[in-house]
Amino acid sequence: MKLFFNKNFILGLITFLLLIGSSRQVVASHNPNSADPVIPEKNGTYDDPDHKGVKVRVFVHPEKPVKTTLPSLVCELPDPDSQTTVGKEAWYLPSNWSYNLNPASTPSTVGSSNLATIAGNGFSDWSSATGNKITFSRGPDTTVSRQAYDGKNIIAWGRTSGSAL
After folding, report:
1. What's the pLDDT tens digit per position in 138-164?
2. CA 52 – CA 50 distance, rounded (Å)
């Protein structure tokens, strides 16, 4: 079997091997035990101590801090209609929690005028269950009827697929 190489392939291979060899020399030329200045392990742009005119950009990614705060609430709501036992769950809620209602989406069987009363009674129960550590407050009514990742708590009716509530 004969192998044929053209001169461009051979020149490319020689250039590649020379680059690999020279990069190994650059890496090996810096002696961390010498008195030479060393690039710090801090974010920033620094002069390369081994190569004049060359800059090195250092990016340091610190470890993610461990969350040490305790949960603001622990849920221990009894359910008289259930024999299930569930352990304590930690919830992270702000001390002030606001919500907006969409009365226009309320079915006629419920009545849009009853939505504020229903929501208010529900949040009153939640406030009592949290030991009044959270203040639930009603914001202005809205016409929003679909979920969105906008930081707002909207109470509205809408169609869902299947038997979702």
Report:
1. 999 999 988 888 889 998 888 777 776
2. 7
Largest alpha-carbon pair distance within the chain? Answer: 90
Quote the CA–CA distance of 57 and 73 in Å, as a whole number. Answer: 45
Q: What are the residue ranges spanned by the domains of the chain?
A: 94-155
Mean pLDDT of the chain: 75
Q: Write down the pLDDT at residue 103.
A: 92
Q: Please state the φ and ψ torsions of residue 120, each to the nearest 5 degrees.
A: -60, -45
Alpha-carbon span 118 to 100, nearest angstrom: 13
Structure tokens at 109: 């069987």
pLDDT exceeds 60 at position 33:
no
Lowest mean pLDDT among 64-78, 93-107, 115-129: 64-78
> Half-sphere exposure of residue 124, counting CA atoms within 13 Å on the CB side?
6
For residue 101, the tally of other CB atoms under 10 A from its CB is 21
What token pair was written down for 44? Answer: 């920033």
